[in-house]
Structure of C-C motif chemokine 21-like:
Amino acid sequence: METQHSTMKFQVLFLLLLLACMYPSVAQGSYENCCLKYANVKKSIRRHVESYRVQETDGGCNIPAVVLKLKNLRVICVDPRIIWVQQMIQKMSAKNTGNM
């Protein structure tokens, strides 16, 4: 009986240890698609923006950002407070609502 009890304790301890080791990798996964800093974008690159998405800080990302997807599939993170970024979002949103 004592052997079964010891085996059970070991199994529970092993399971807890395994879960503790997995936790950091799960937590890190939320940062995969987060912008960590803003890029300085030249005016000529702005014409090649195909789409964008807004990164909020409430989903695990540290900074608010606008993630620009370029026609060549590059992804660039820009500061959403910049005037031209706000104008581009308005322009693209108006274009998308006009197509519906």
User: Anything to note?
Assistant: The radius of gyration is 23 Å. Residues 2-29 form the longest helix (28 residues). The CA atoms of residues 48 and 70 lie 5 Å apart.
